[in-house]
Amino acid sequence: MSIDRAICLISRRIRFAAILLPSCAAFLLCAQPSFSAEIPFTSEHSAASTITNAGDLHPTDVDRDGDIDLVGTASASDTVFWLENVDSAGTNWIEHVLDAAFSGASAAVTGDVDRDGKPDIVAAAVTGDEIAWWRNTDGSGTNWIKYVVDSAAGGPGSVSVGDVNGDGALDVVGAAIMSNEISWLQNVDGTGTNWTKHVVATNFMLPSSVSVADMDDDGDTDIVSSANGASTLGWFENMDGSGTNWTAHNISTSLFGAVAAVAIDIDRDGDRDIVGAGAAVNKVAWWENADGAATLWVEHAISVTFTQVTEIAVADLDADGDFDVVAAGTGMNAIVWWENTDGSGATWVEWTIRSGYGGALRVSVTDLDHDGDRDVVGSALSLNDVTWWENRTIHRSAMHGPKWSVSSNFNGAFAVAPIDLDRDGDVDLCGGAYTADTVSWFENLDSMGSTWTQHVVASFFDGVYWVRSADMDRDGDADLVGAAGWANDIAWWENLDGSGNSWTQRMVDPLFLGASCVDASDVDGDGSMDLIGSASTWHRLAWWRNNDGFGTAWTQYVITTNLQSALFVRGADIDLDGDADVLAAAGAANKVAWFENTDGTGTNWLEHVVTASLSFARAAAVADIDRDGDMDVVAVGQWTDDVVWFENTDRIGTVWTMHDIDMSFHDAYSIESVDMDCDGDCDVLAAGKEGHQVAWWENQGGSGTNWIKHAVGSSLPYSQHAVSVDLDRDGDFDVAIAEYYDGMTWLENRGGQFAMLASNMAAYVGLESQSHAMLRITMTHRGQPGDTDEELSEMILLFEEAGGDPLTSVEADALIEDLHLYVDNGNGVFEPAYDTLFVTLSSFSLSNGMERIVLPDYDESLQVVHGTPHIYFLVANLAVEASAQSPDRFRITHLTEGGPGETSSAEDRDNDLQLALEYATNRPSRIIVAISRDTDTDADLIPDYWEQEYFGGPTNAAAGIDEDMDGESNYREFVADTDPWRSASFLEIIAISNMSGSAIYFMSSASRVYSLNWSDDLSAGIWTNITGQTNRAGTGGLDLLSDPDAVSTMRFYRIEVSVP
Fold first, then answer.
1. Range scoring the smallest mean pLDDT among 7-11, 177-181, 211-215, 806-810
2. Which fold has domain 987-1058?
3. In CATH, what class is 400-749?
4. How far apart (Å, rounded) are the C-alpha atoms in residues 925 and 868?
5. CA 868 to each of CA 735, 780, 785, 790, 792: distance values in angstroms, whole numbers, following the listed order
6. What are the start-end ranges of the E strands in 178-319?
7. What pLDDT score does 37 carry?
8. pLDDT in tens, 398-409
9. Residue extents of the structural domains in the chain
């Protein structure tokens, strides 16, 4: 079984604290359309074709090169192996065998067993009666040393890893088929060389799976398991957190042929539910943790027709912010997934990824091609292979706005952090207010970020600079830590009831002069959260050891006393050796540096300078910007408006190369790295204090060499701090901001897979029986290079007399003879003679003023390629007596605001899957008033419609005045249908071609007629019409009239224009 492990890591980060991995500082799958839709798993790839009876397929970066490899077992060949993802795209693989004599190899997982920062492999051998682990000695996956964990394991069929006794080291949990035992193996010294076995249960008949999770939310590690023989799903409570006393809890005792149990929050209520499968009853279901304490369970069916299910995986496969379920089954010979359509687990839709997959045995979910979405990996008995299916879902953009207020009364908001403080399954916010000396958290009441309640945690924390969240007392809930610059305090607040209603302050250090920042990290590797702090006045960094693990006794250890104006600090494993190092920024020193925790206990530190030339370095963060598997650094320089990143050139953090991202981000103040557009690489988010701005930079190509800046909203006064977080539970990254004067705010991510932006083309008046351009609509593919092409499927338009006053079908028919949709020829200019007329609508069927235009499938003129926008022109041909109608005016709005079915829509061209529209406000045309051609109120021979269009009123033009000084009066400009305000706009012959007669070129109007005259003597003033070249209607663009009888003697030509 497997869970979407990247999602689990970030969930743990939000809830408690994080050990930063070589990736972005935050990770989340990008949201996809909110409607139910199949995922296009259309590309099948082979990772291996010679593996029989593949066991667990565990995704991890074995060789630390920045991509995902696969670890597994093959029972038929007694093999433990890993598959190297050579090209990071999942198309080229190399099999590496660790052990070819591991008898009945049945399961494998990965973890850092010896705490050296490298991924090791733990495996079980059911017939060999053994559990062992292999040390990844150089971190490249090429040299391995085997260590036996348990040589009398009772026929282990499943294995997992976790810190069972809370000492900071990874222990091993096993399920033994032959002895019916659940046990855990204690990693006594944290190096994986000394193990002590502890039996958890001895009568759990034929256990089929085992995993670890904190089921009762008390801060320790419990065990979850399924038992085939006992038809049971159950969990074992770690009573004292040390793994010495256990209590068994049954979840279900009637799941016949139970083969899997996965702990995950299916209904998003903040506790862990269980997803399980029973092969004998063809059932996949989930059990709701009804009381939140894991003692009361309610079963909900997902499927009762999937025969002989062999394994399940849980992941947010469609990236909509909830968890879906994937399964393999030998009875169906298929890999399928069930979509959690409402996010609560009440309704499921089944989709097939692969049918006819003979003996489908194993399944896992991960991002194998490094593009930010979830792919599916499987193995099959009869095919002897490992296969993966590429998720070809079109990516989506990140576009933020408008701004929502969390609290406008949080004076001097200085810091913000996301956390589920009340454990209700949504993300709340916590923060500090410098002016108000207040630490508060803000409850996300409706889980959508639209309604908030402020809860004050501390109101006399003088000069709050920084607030973060961590579980300081290991009780399973989120506490708060803070730094106060004026009070010189480092403190934490205990969340007494676990719901954020009652707090007690615990002082850590009241004499840390100029306390500027604080972070939580397990510095000494003992399994409890310590604190790291910076002091700008003292120019020092220090850490405080959480002596008892409960946050009541602290000892300070100085890291350095020579970091001038130390402003920022963060715990991170920079050199990837398995312990917590410290990253810092020092303003007056213009320095970003990291301090190596050389012995892993926090007693010895070695400074490594990243840069000493970043003017007033304000903040920094860690991320694998270039996707090479090591930790790079991003930072901001406040005084020179710099946003930069530093490449970890030697991979161990001793040699750094600076790369510019943006050198003009005014008053750059905070920074973090996040995959904002969910394309598999690390982007950058920053706040500019006096620049009143927040922006993110897209890491185009994923190598850190090309960056595109995207503004996050506008009018963000004194933005001190910005963080990425999914506040509305739709699966994408929103942005929360601490604004010094506006308090706590956030901006919703309303990105999409395609965008449609409309702009007005309508004049103020329109002639009867004439065509009038109304809207220019641009459709843009907002995915990533390599994504499938898109096609427009439906356009929805709103017809109104004025805003809020929709037309009826009868009114629209009386005003508009025809409505035309043109496809641009590529130059972006409406030219009816050259653009393609695609749709003509001759009658209307309006519903509340809305007209749906359904477009044909698979038409190339409607298909949009990434990087090449498509332009459409909407043109209305007014009726003969439109000016006599009531109403005699209208406007057209292209609808882009609203949910599915309420806006224009597009599809994935290859798979006909509906796409998400990037948010844009509805863009109406100007209100156009229908008038008769002959109406001339002031009798100046210039009709009202023309005066209205160019002069704003029916009597505003003076016929004899030359407004633009081009030699043509307003009257003559009207006759020529040129622009009286542009001196370059007048009727003229552009060119004459003398090939096979004469061709005379000029720019014409579609509403004028033209005649070609010739003369051979200008002094005589005699002009002759050329036969067939008189009263010719203009094309509305470059036009020509010709003289096929031109002789060798010289001729003069002129063009006459008239109003038809």
1. 7-11
2. Immunoglobulin-like (2.60.40)
3. mainly beta
4. 25
5. 29, 7, 11, 11, 14
6. 181-187, 195-201, 207-213, 222-227, 232-238, 246-252, 258-264, 273-278, 283-289, 297-303, 309-315
7. 64
8. 999 889 999 999
9. 68-165+172-203, 400-749, 754-929, 987-1058
